[in-house]
Amino acid sequence: MEFPSKLIENAVEELAKLPGVGKKTALRLALHLLKNESEDTFLLAESLVKMRTEVKHCKQCHNISDTEVCGICSNPLRDKSLLCVVSDIRDVIAIENTSQYKGLYHVLGGVISPLEGVGPSDLHIDSLLERLLPNSEVKEVLMAISPTMEGDTTAFYLTRKLRDHQNLKITSIARGIPVGGELEYTDEITLGRSIVERTAYGRA
Amino acid sequence: MEFPSKLIENAVEELAKLPGVGKKTALRLALHLLKNESEDTFLLAESLVKMRTEVKHCKQCHNISDTEVCGICSNPLRDKSLLCVVSDIRDVIAIENTSQYKGLYHVLGGVISPLEGVGPSDLHIDSLLERLLPNSEVKEVLMAISPTMEGDTTAFYLTRKLRDHQNLKITSIARGIPVGGELEYTDEITLGRSIVERTAYGRA
Ligand SMILES: [Zn+2]
Ligand SMILES: [Zn+2]
Prior knowledge:
The structure is a homodimer of 204-residue chains.
Chain A: H1 6-15, H2 23-35, H3 38-54, E1 56-57, E2 64-65, E3 79-86, H4 89-96, E4 103-107, H5 126-131, E5 140-143, H6 149-161, E6 169-172, H7 188-196
Helix pairs in contact in A: 1-2
The structure holds zinc ion (ZN) (2 copies).
């Protein structure tokens, strides 16, 4: 694609480095910014730089945070006996938005993937095990890791690491038919698991 | 959506003001920037601010440009007898990328749309008429405006404004079946026009 302006070309190239943004979309975004008040562009640029420079990772759960310890970890109303293990910050946001979970989190920062060269030492596993030492307040670890091959491998790895913790309950998010989902459109594996792991009628 | 960090929330809000970017996409983009080198975020922000501050509009054709007069208008190899009227800068880029056009452009900056309150005076029509005064080098005006209702209205308005220019040829981009398109999937109006405006066999 040829551009009538080197300045636009640069902006398009930088925008097109974002995931899911092709050159055409990048051009549309650049032209949108040109059409609007320059203030809009300045606010966007400033918010990105400020975020990139100032955002921290919670030193306890590795969630993103504006402070050393995140708002969830430091909230006295959260249930410290329950720890939810997720691979990604997005999972924390998704679970928080359900308003169904009141425990703490631990963000692994990915899943074990030999193909992509991600081993256990690349994830926040050591700090998870530290949080689960015998004197820990945690009584239950809820594995909320996506049921992909890599996700299942990661959950299996963690479960094995934790098998000596006699008093620790290890649970997993339920697999089954999505709420509002129809049986006939559900894949066989999910449908199969929803039968094997059937729950008593009326259970929440 | 609740965010674990005010800094991320701000960035997501600014990103979500971009066209076609919802909150979920904005969050994905923000987390991508957080995962990568801060240098990437700085380059992106800088390129946007630089573009917004420094890009000019060509004072002749209203195309975007790094200089007072754009590279197309100032190129001595372009055919100054041929002027292509488009509504948007994106159309210039699209036509340039075909490598089939060697004339000049005039960017209207939109189309006449009474519903959206866009009248002729909101577009670069006066400067177009000035470029077509009797002593002008332009011999042909090629209307390359999208065949929507507003686009057709705009082309019709311009054609009427130019009807006294005796020696000016007014043409329009050809309507017809897209190259590689199949007859049976073409809408009736396009198919109809492609028959009415049929061309001699073998013509380029
Ligand atoms: Zn935390
Ligand atoms: Zn120009």
